[in-house]
Amino acid sequence: MLPPLALSQSIGYISEPASTFDDLKDVGLWPADQTIKKISKINVWAGETRPNAIELTYQLINDDDPQTRLHGQRQGDQHTVTVADNEYFVGIFGAIDSDNLLPSLRRIGFLVYNKNTGNVTERGPFPDTTESDKHVKGFASGLGVILALTGTLTANKILNSFAIYSLQSDGLDFGIKPVMKI
Fold first, then answer.
1. What is the mean pLDDT for each group of 10 consecutive residues in the chain (182 residues)?
2. Gyration radius of the chain over CA positions
3. Side by side, which strands form the sheet with 87-97?
4. Which in 17, 24, 44, 175 has the greatest CB count within 10 A?
5. Neighbours of 62 (CB within 10 A)
6. What is the 3-state secondary structure (H, E, C) of 129-150?
7. Contact 78, 126 (CB under 8 A)
């Protein structure tokens, strides 16, 4: 039986994207199957004013070889967030332009849940905040075990927008009840 999923609101500017991606379909083989166990690592390449690319490493069910998907261009500084076996990505936060017509992605960071301690920690944002960030507004998305991302790229292959697929039951079977409810 396939787990119940929710798709978050899209973050960023999505009018006439040059290309789209959907890791739940491409990696997880959704809706015919669900082969993703969890995201174990996220790399972000960020310039001074925005994230340019995101690369996700997916651990698969019944397969020891992870699959990696890059979305965007490896331009700028690389930032890596890796989670341990007892940790899960449960949210994404950051900032977009305050321009309502072209809300470009400006920063991205991640919330990580540790199932042993119950702690949720922030990793990021990337790029770091600066004093010149006067025309941005924050966002938070997800807040459930993140299973995969979908989104768009610009014509020059820069990350443009994204949305999150998250589990909508008790999450993953941690062997304890109740399971994470955030």
1. 75 76 92 87 94 96 93 96 96 82 84 94 87 62 83 89 80 37 32
2. 16
3. 120-126, 105-114, 87-97, 136-142
4. 44
5. 6
6. CCCCCCCEEEEEEECCCEEEEE
7. no
Q: Note the pTM of the prediction, 2 decimals.
A: 0.85
Cβ-based neighbours of 172, under 8 Å, separated by 6 or more: 38, 88, 145, 179
Contacts of 32 (CB under 8 A, 6+ apart): none
124-172 pLDDT, tens digit per residue, is 999 987 655 556 766 666 568 999 999 999 888 999 889 999 886 554 4
CA dist 167 and 24 (Å) reads: 12
Q: Which two tokens stand for residue 112?
A: 């990580």
Q: What is the 3-state composition of the chain as percent helix, strand, coil, each rounded to the nearest 5?
A: 0, 55, 45
Query: How does DSSP classify residue 175?
Result: S
CA distance 176 to 113: 15
